[in-house]
Design goal:
Layout: H1 2-52, E1 68-71, H2 92-100, H3 133-138, E2 143-147, E3 151-156, E4 161-166, E5 183-189, E6 192-198, E7 216-225, E8 228-236, E9 245-254, H4 267-278, H5 292-299
Parallel strand pairs: 4-5
Antiparallel strand pairs: 1-2, 1-9, 2-3, 3-4, 5-6, 6-7, 7-8, 8-9
Length: 300
C-alpha cells in the first residue's frame, strides 16, 4: 500500500512538472504572437507616419512584392504625365474625337492636354459612365494590390471593382473580347513588373487619350523603396496614333494601415457638383428625387 501511495505521489509530481512545461511553452508561444502583432502594428504606424510626413522610412524592399494599398497623393504624385501635346501623336480622327469632348467632362484629362479648341461643357453633365483604366489607378483613390502565384488582382476603391493580371506565362490573346480594362498578362523583368494589355473597347480613354481596338498598353511598376511605387505607361495604337506615347513616372504611396471602403459614382451627385461648382451661373434644376414643394420653394 505504501509503495502504491509513493508511486501515486511520483506520478502526480511528474504530471505537474509536465504541466508547467506545457504552460510555459504555451505562454511563450502566446507572448511571441503578441510581440509579433505589436511589432507589425508599430512598423505599420511608423511607415504611415513617414508617409504622412513626406519622408521615406528605412527597410528592405521584398523582392517582387508590390502588394498592399497604394494611392497617388500629394507629395508622391508626379506632375509629368504625357509629355507631348496630343496633336503630335494623335491621328486626325482621334484628335477630332478628343476636341469634340467638352473639357469639363474629361475628369481624367490632365490640365493643358486639350488637343485644341475645346468647349466648356455647360450643356452636359459629368458622366459616371466614363471609364478609363489609368483613371482608376492614378486618380486620388486607393487601390489594393493582391498577389497570388497565378494572378495579380488590383482592387479599386472607386466604383468598388477590380482587374486581374495573369502571371502564369500565358501569351496575350489574338482576338480578345473587348472590355473596359482589357486583357492583361504580366511578367517580372528584374525588379520591374511589366504588364501588357490588349482588348480594350472603344468606350474607354487612357490618360485622357482616345484609342481604337488595336491599342497595345504597357504598364511598368517598380518599388524603389518600401513606401513608393513608380509607374510608367506606354501606349501604341496603329489605328489611332502616329507614334507611341509614354507617361510618367507616376508615384503612388504605400498605406499599410488602410482598408478599402465602398465608393460609387452617383450621377445625381456629379450633376449637382457640375451645376453648383463648375457652372454656378446655370439655372438650378431640382434633383430627380426632390418633391414638388421643394421645387416651388426654390423658385421663390
Amino acid at each position: 500500500m505504501r509503495y502504491r501511495f509513493r508511486s501515486s505521489i511520483i506520478a502526480l509530481v511528474a504530471v505537474l512538472a509536465c504541466s508547467r512545461v506545457v504552460f510555459a511553452q504555451t505562454d511563450a508561444k502566446t507572448n511571441a504572437q503578441t510581440n509579433a502583432q505589436s511589432n507589425a502594428q508599430t512598423n505599420a504606424k511608423t511607415a504611415n507616419q513617414a508617409i504622412y510626413a513626406g519622408q521615406h522610412h528605412d527597410g528592405a524592399v521584398p523582392p517582387h512584392d508590390i502588394s498592399g494599398v497604394w494611392m497617388a497623393s500629394a507629395g508622391f504624385e508626379s506632375s509629368s504625365r504625357i509629355h507631348e501635346p496630343p496633336a503630335t501623336f494623335l491621328q486626325p480622327w482621334a484628335l477630332a474625337k478628343l476636341n469634340a469632348e467638352p473639357i469639363a467632362l474629361r475628369k481624367d484629362l490632365p490640365a493643358g492636354h486639350g488637343g485644341g479648341d475645346t468647349a466648356l461643357g455647360t450643356d452636359q453633365d459629368i458622366s459616371c459612365s466614363q471609364i478609363g483604366l489609368t483613371d482608376f489607378i492614378i486618380k486620388q483613390k486607393p487601390v489594393e494590390i493582391v498577389q497570388t502565384p497565378q494572378r495579380i488582382f488590383m482592387f479599386f476603391e472607386y466604383e468598388h471593382t477590380f482587374r486581374e493580371i495573369w502571371m502564369d506565362g500565358r501569351a496575350l490573346p489574338k482576338d480578345p473580347d473587348p472590355s473596359y480594362f482589357g486583357y492583361s498578362v504580366g511578367r517580372w523583368e528584374g525588379d520591374t513588373l511589366v504588364v501588357e494589355s490588349v482588348g480594350f473597347n472603344d468606350k474607354t480613354v487612357l490618360d485622357g487619350m482616345p484609342h481604337s481596338d488595336a491599342l497595345h498598353f504597357v504598364e511598368r511598376y517598380r518599388r524603389p523603396d518600401l513606401d513608393t511605387l513608380e509607374l510608367t505607361l506606354t501606349a501604341d495604337d496603329s489605328k489611332a496614333y502616329t507614334k507611341p506615347w509614354t507617361a510618367g513616372p507616376i508615384k503612388l504611396a504605400w498605406h499599410p494601415d488602410w482598408e478599402l471602403v465602398e465608393a460609387f459614382c452617383l450621377q445625381e451627385d456629379n450633376s449637382t457638383f457640375k451645376k453648383l461648382i463648375i457652372d454656378p451661373s446655370r439655372p438650378h434644376e431640382p434633383a430627380p428625387n426632390s418633391n414638388k414643394a421643394d421645387h416651388q420653394a426654390d423658385q421663390k
